[in-house]
Each structure stands twice: as structure tokens, then as C-alpha cells.
Amino acid sequence: MLKLKHLIATAVLVFAMPVTAQEPVNLDQLLQQLKQGQFAQSQANQEREARFRAQAEQQQQMLRDAIAERDRLEALSARLESEFEENERDLAALEDALTQRMGSLKELFGVLQQVAGDTASTLQNSYVSVEFPGRSEALSNLAQKMGSSAKLATIDEIESVWFALQQEMTESGKVSEFTTTVTLAEGEKVEKPVIRVGTFNMVADGKYLELVPGTDAVAELVRQPAGRYLATIEALERGEENPVRFGLDPTGGSILGLLVQAPGTMERIEQGSTVGYIILALGAIGLLIGLERFMTLTFMGRKVKRQLKQQQPSQDNPLGRVMAVQQKYPQADTETLELKLSEAILREVPKITRNLTFIKIISVVAPLLGLLGTVTGMINTFQAITLFGTGDPKLMAGGISQALVTTVLGLVVAIPMTLLFATLNTRSKNIVHVLQEQASGIIAERSERSH
Known about the structure:
With 451 residues, this protein is α+β, with helices and mostly antiparallel strands. The protein has helices at residues 2-16, 27-102, 105-124, 128-131, 135-148, 155-171, 227-238, 254-261, 265-271, 273-308, 318-328, 334-352, 356-388, 394-450; strands at 175-183, 189-197, 201-204, 207-211, 218-220. Among the domains are: 173-261, no CATH class; 271-450. It contains 14 helices and five strands. This is Energy transducer TonB.
């Protein structure tokens, strides 16, 4: 193998050598050049062999040194392994002795570790920690130290757990006011006075606050509950009443978080989509027309009653205009006067019953539009079920909300419109009845005079 390497190196050297001699002219010169190359190669090989023999002794010395170092390290490893085994036995004996000496104290410290961990989790989610920060970190460190290194707790550390529990119980029955950093709904952080109601709620500037998870900081709720709950905050901040009515959340914010997620009135209306807006628009138009008719018929009824007490007809009311027909045709016979009075009454009826039919139409169309929205919402729901299945109820909530909201809006519009139409129709009929009654009286009076 070594000779093969030498031959390869020689061939590489021959081919790598620069051509300094002139190219051979004939075969004799070529033979001469080959001899010179073999001589040079042989000389180079001899030099390499000489260097290898010179370094062989040095390599042998290095090998002897490495073997000696290996033997030394193996002896050291055996000695350390023996010491490790002895230390393991000593450590096991010491742990057994510690366990026997601790006795029931070991169970005590185990319970203390569990209580410290549970209390740290409770304090981390407590509003009291905003006023007294850093309590949960100390108990977490104590529980971690006792669990990882099996160290015993000191008297001060045991008392710190007792103090934290007692402080939490004491502060849960207090209403405290202090200043802290509050993150507003816009993201800005400001220092402001806040009021803490036990461990249940925290308020500031008429708004409810929430505890930022994992920290001792508070922030304004982006969505506040209904106004009747916010009104109790103002009473609490003024402190005028004793006791003060306050919307308390005994779960520490869970119920409040669910309460603010409930959609408001405008959000429910928006769930009705286009059909809901059409229903509300019709309801608004019907309400305006109904108010106009109500005021008109009320004033008209008052004028008709006033006309009943007067003999001289007035042109500002329907009854006066009907009674004026008698004076306009004093020489007409009974049949002619009857026809003239009927014509006058028929002329007044459209003014009295104007737009009442439109209100009746709205009262009928509104629930039909609600039914249309219900059908549309259910179609959207079934499409969502077809595409995504029934695994996520939120995908179906939009269609169901539209279906229910439009039905409610249709009924909300139809019921008042029906009552309004009934009221206005009754008033208009009463006025028309008075006109017909007075016209009949006028005809009877003329008939008596004629006979």
C-alpha cells in the first residue's frame, strides 16, 4: 500500500513538474530526459524515507504518552465512581434519618406547599392584589422552593402564608379607595383613584374595571353593562346613601364578563339585517301618521263637541260645514235636503278617515315581513350547516339571530299599529256618527215644518 502511494505521488510529481527542458528532437534525447526524471524521482523518495525514519521515534513517544494518560484517567474514573457510590449510600442514610426525625412535620410542610401554591393562584386573580401588589409572587417562590429543593420553610415563611390568607379574608369585607394605574379603553394608561368592593369588583369614573390576567394591573371594560348597573357606581362614588345599592358580581368578574357580551338594542336591530330595517322604517312611518291622525281627530272632536252647543254653524269643523247645508238650501224639500246632507257627509268622511287604511296595512304587513326575515335567516343557517356542519354553534348564530330578531321586530311594529288603528278608527267613526245623527235631526226638523 505504501509503494502504491509513492508511485501515485511520483506520477503526480512528474506530471506536475513544469517543462523546463526543450522538447526532444529525436529518440535519444527523449531517452536521456526519461533517465534524468527517474533519477530525480528516486532522489525525492530517498529524502522522504529519511524524514519518515527520523519522525518514527517521535510518534512512538507520543503513543506511549497517550497510553499513560489513558491509564491515569481510567484509574481516576474508577476512584471517582467508588466515591460516588459511597456518597449515594451516605445520602440515602441521611435522608432516612431526616425523614424519621421530621415525622409529622413532613406532612405539615407538604400541606404548606400545597396551600402556598393554591393561595398564590387565588391572590393572582384577586382585586386585593392591585392594592397590595407582589403577594402572589412571594407565595409562588415559596411553593417552588419547597417543591424543587425539598427545603424546609422558616417560621417567617409560614407566617407569611397565614398573613396572606388573613389579609385576603379581611379585605374581602371592605370597600377601599386608592390610586393606581388604569388602562383606559383607548389603550392609554393613567393614574386615577379607584374603588375596590371587597374581592368582587373595582370601579373608577363611573365604569367597571377588570383585572388583567397574570398581573396586578386593571383596565376599563371595553364594553360596559347596562345603564342601571352603571347608575349604582355613581351612588357608590358619591357615598350619599348608607347602605349603597351596587351591582355586585360575586364571581369576581365572570358574570360581568358574560353580561357585557350580551348584545345591546342597536346590535340586536343590526342582526335583523335589511328586513329588520324595512320593518322599522314602516313602523316609524306608521307611528308618524298615527300621531298626526291622533292629534287631528282629537282637535276635530273638540270642535265638533263645541259646535253641538252652538246654533250658528262654523266652517272650521265638519259638523259646522254639514249644518251650513241647511242654511244654504232653506226652501229645499225633505228629500233634496237629505241628499245634500248625505253629499256633505260623504265629502267630510275622507278627511276624517284619511291614512287610516295605510296604518292598517302596516299592521298586517309587518308580521309578514318578520316571517320573511325568519325564513331568510333559517336559509342562512341551513347553508352554514351544509358547509361547516354542526360542530361550531357560532357559525349558525347569525342566521338564527336574524330569524328571531325579524320576527320580534315584526310583532313589535304590528301590535302598536293594530292598537293605534283601532283607536283612530273608533274616533273617526264617532265623528262620522255625530255627523249622521245631526243630519238625521235636521231632516226630521225640516220634515216636521213642512207638514
